[in-house]
């Protein structure tokens, strides 16, 4: 490897893309094209970066497996940064396996770290954690060590494990300071501050209050009967009763929990569950059916009793009932929560991350745009069109990101 390529590579590792380009900007051989692609990625021109990396991959000879695999890994990182979550994961895996066979353990570990980031973004937390567990952090540069800490923290936050998240972020902060890259230090600081802002809103018979993630963790560990409106589940005695695909049952559970220990009239329950203004006999009959289904799902955790006015939620003596909601409620809070990371997302990437159809996400985005909460740029509705939030304050937190969104 010639001296200019070596110097450019060192400049990129130190976060100095301009210094790297000063040495290789006029060269078009394969190693220089690859480094130019990485430099453009660091400068934020992701489209040009991808084009340069693909040219570099084609310019390397078919026998240069390691160099071609490195280009694939670099392109995968750009896809992650640009939230192109549909980028083929299998290609990254093949590149990692190639690097491992070639003895390039550092870049193989880096490829595994990128895979963990991708899995976290699309909500596959267990798989992301398994990827992190097999990475030897000492193999990675400090910048990637900080990234691993951020991924571990992200997994812990999504699982409402505040203590683990804080410990992971402290490791990430130490690595970021060691790397000496201001943008990375700032990114970790921003993640640390997310732990100090309200993660959820508690609704109980005593009123409402905002909770930090630590307080949410303590609440879920207690014996309280929790109707979790962030993830559309009911939590009781460390068991989780999923109602993500049962919107009517969840609406009934939430209405009854918000009124506890009082009952809720049939008229209100019909309005909440069926959006009906008048509780006629057909609504009453359907309400009895749905209450029966909810009673069967709750089992021994809670009872549902009929009263003169409507229905009453009951729990064993000594237990409380609360509702856990987003700090700022919106029918499309999960979309806003993902966009709240400040990146420009495509509708396809949002759909992949939320596990719903692109059409469902499109409807949510169109409604949010009409309300002035998001804006788009680019042409068309496919990958070329990107969505961002115009302002960040007051948006739902992604710490308790729900798994699904509804069509409503």
How many β strands by DSSP? 11
Mean pLDDT: 86
Strands of the widest sheet, in order across it, are 2-1-9-3-4-5
Distance separating the two termini: 58 Å
Return Rg in Å: 25 Å
- Per DSSP, what share of the residues sits in E-state strands of 2 or more residues? 5-15%
Largest sheet: 6 strands, mixed
Query: In terms of structural class, how would the helical and strand content be classed?
Result: alpha+beta
Fraction of helical residues:
55-70%
Low-confidence stretches: 392-399, 402-408
Secondary-structure element sequence? HHHHHHHHHHHEEHEEEHEHHEEEHHHEE
Q: What global shape is seen?
A: elongated
Helix tally equals 18
Q: What is the fold's blueprint, element by element?
A:
Blueprint: H1 3-13, H2 17-24, H3 30-43, H4 46-59, H5 65-81, H6 89-101, H7 105-121, H8 125-133, H9 142-158, H10 162-179, H11 182-194, E1 200-204, E2 207-211, H12 213-221, E3 225-228, E4 233-236, E5 239-242, H13 247-259, E6 264-265, H14 266-274, H15 281-298, E7 303-306, E8 310-314, E9 321-325, H16 333-339, H17 347-354, H18 358-370, E10 375-377, E11 386-388
Parallel strand pairs: 3-9
Antiparallel strand pairs: 1-2, 1-9, 3-4, 4-5, 6-8, 7-8, 10-11
Organism: Nitratireductor kimnyeongensis
InterPro entries: HTH_11 (IPR013196), TPR-like_helical_dom_sf (IPR011990), WH-like_DNA-bd_sf (IPR036388), WH_DNA-bd_sf (IPR036390)
Protein name: HTH domain-containing protein
